Amino acid sequence: MKHIIKKILKESDFDWIKDVPSFIEITEPVAQTNPKNMYRLYWTNGFGEEAGTWADNWHNFNADSNGEHMLKRYVQMLVNGFNSSGYFSIDKLIDLYLEGGHDYIVTDWMKSELSKIPEDDDPMSERQALREMLSEDLYDLGLLPWDSYHSSDATVERWSVTYFDENGIEFKTKINRM
């Protein structure tokens, strides 16, 4: 087996491998499998003092109508959800939704829950319900984890979208106007 692996490695793009040191034993090839026919939303969260500690994260979306719809929703939230201080803000998203024209922010199950709030109830009830639902949604996705240093949501420093084709090859993308 060892000789077969060495031969495969030597005949491939790894022709720079001549001899393996005695303290290393080649056991089995390692393969990295990428998703196929999927989009990946990447983002970087900032934690700690002046958001000086960064943590990269991502979420995959299927390249079907449901996956593309969900990806578009989160991209629209990222495009429009930064407040005047430059921070991604649930309050900004709530304001956009309540002002109108940004229905993508609230999912069908959220709309159903909001419809159960009596109309004569305090307007803050709707805001609070929206805050809880959006927080849950964004925390579940991993987009807004908790920053214990500041006792608040972590910042979103940057984000991007890539596409994996049917062979698992990852491509950069450009976000067009929506």
Task: Give an overview in words.
The chain has 178 residues and is of the alpha+beta class. It is built from five helices and six strands, in the order αββααααββββ. It has helices at 2-11, 65-80, 90-99, 108-115, 123-141; strands at 38-47, 53-62, 146-147, 152-153, 155-164, 170-172. The strands form two sheets. It has a four-stranded antiparallel beta sheet with strand order 2-1-5-6. Strand 5 and strand 6 form a beta hairpin. The radius of gyration is 23 Å and the shape is elongated.
Helices and strands in order:
Elements: H1 2-11, E1 38-47, E2 53-62, H2 65-80, H3 90-99, H4 108-115, H5 123-141, E3 146-147, E4 152-153, E5 155-164, E6 170-172
Antiparallel strand pairs: 1-2, 1-5, 3-4, 5-6
What would the keywords be for this entry?
178 residues; 6 strands; alpha+beta; 5 helices; 4-stranded antiparallel beta sheet; two-stranded antiparallel ribbon
Concise account of the structure shown:
This protein is elongated. It has helices spanning about 1-10, 65-80, 90-100, 110-115, 125-140; strands spanning about 40-45, 55-60, 145, 150-155, 155-165, 170.
- Straight-line distance between termini: 54 Å
Strand fraction: 15-25%
User: Mind summarizing the main beta sheet?
Assistant: 4 strands, antiparallel
Strand order of the largest sheet: 2-1-5-6
- Calculate Rg over CA atoms: 23 Å
> Which series of helices and strands comes N to C?
HEEHHHHEEEE
Sequence stretches where pLDDT stays below 50 over 5 or more residues = none
Helix content: 25-40%
Kindly report the oligomeric state of this protein.
single chain
Shape call: elongated
Structural classification = alpha+beta
